[in-house]
Design a protein that fits this description.
11 strands
C-alpha cells in the first residue's frame, strides 16, 4: 500500500481560529494551523463518532469537540478529556501549499 498526497490548499488560506474539513482517502480530516505549524487529525470524535473536530474549540494545540467537550492533542491524537486516540496524518507544506498524506486505498 502506498501513500497519497492530498492538496488541502494554500497555507495563507487556512483559518487561524478554526479548522478546515478535508475529505481525503475516504477519511474526514480536520486540518488546523496553529502558531506556524499545521496539524491534521481525524475529524471524527471518538465519543459520538461524528465529524465535528474541525469546528472544535482550540486551546493551544488541544481541540475540544463542540458536542460534548472531549478534547484531543493535535500533535498525537491522544485524548486529554474523555478517552481514545484519534489518527493523525503527516502534513507537508511546500511553496506555501499544504498537503496531507494518507494511505492509498484507505
Amino acid at each position: 500500500m502506498g501513500v497519497q498526497r492530498i492538496r488541502v490548499g494554500e497555507l495563507v488560506d487556512l483559518p487561524l481560529r478554526r479548522g478546515k474539513l478535508v475529505c481525503a482517502g475516504g477519511e474526514e480530516i480536520a486540518v488546523w494551523r496553529v502558531d506556524g505549524n499545521v496539524y491534521a487529525i481525524s475529524a471524527v470524535c471518538a465519543h459520538q463518532h461524528v465529524a465535528t473536530l474541525h469546528e472544535g474549540l482550540r486551546n493551544g494545540t488541544a481541540i475540544a469537540c463542540p458536542l460534548h467537550g472531549w478534547t484531543y492533542a493535535l500533535e498525537n491524537g491522544r485524548a486529554l478529556v474523555g478517552s481514545g486516540i484519534l489518527r493523525t496524518y503527516p502534513v507537508i507544506v511546500e511553496r506555501g501549499i499544504v498537503y496531507v498524506q494518507v494511505d492509498e486505498g484507505v
